[in-house]
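Reading is simple: each integer encodes one residue's backbone shape. The lines below illustrate:
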Amino acid sequence: MAKDKCPECPQCLPGWLVQFADLMSLLLVFFVLLLSMAVMDKKKVEEYIAVMKKSMGFISSETETTQRKQAETDGESDGGGAGMDDGSGADNEDAVEAVDEIVQEMNAESTNEMQQIEISKGQNEFSLDIPSTIMFEDGEYKLTNKGSKKFIAKLARVIRTMPQTFDIEVMGFTDRTTYRSKTIPRDNWDLSALRAISVVKELIKNKIDPAQLKVAAFSQYHPKSDMPGENGRVEMKFIANNDQTDLLGEENFFDRLEQ
């Protein structure tokens, strides 16, 4: 009787594949160890894990969309990130525009080019250059001009309705004419300082918070022009305080001016 023939065995996997699989496992453990000792950005790691899970079929595209929306919501609640605009730029534009309207009204009442208020804008601030002849009599520091008081009252109204607070610096300057007197103001220093103080007190009368205000005096030592008539002036610089919140909510800026 013939012996039974041995059935053919299936071909085995090549021997090198076992060593290769062990090597890949060791490399994986090595990189996991490196990852565990590294300082990581939690958000980026979570995004990376989500991508890996999706590529391996562990997470659906719908779940990924939900996670992305959640991450965007978290970013907004954290302040919108470094690249997001907090809206202060638009608020500042509104403030400058409202002040500019008042300046144009004041300038329209004067036909003298030497008595025109100038407004200039910088980054996160704007300033008014007001000729002293508009607000004060020659050699005087008391604010008695009704037109000037009306101008400051309108200006104060805009300041109160600004969506964020401004630090306001009022600076007094005189021309190069030497001023001497035995009574106050005794010289150009007194005159420039007292004129700035008069403007600040008028702002306070119109319900501007004194904590927002400060005074500086420069006498005749910071001329802006070679023409003496242009150097006597009061400058008001408005510097936006970005740490302040929007105290008046989402209400339209110009709607508040009507109140």
The chain has eight helices and five strands. Confidence is low (pLDDT under 50) at residues 77-87, 243-254. The radius of gyration is 36 Å.
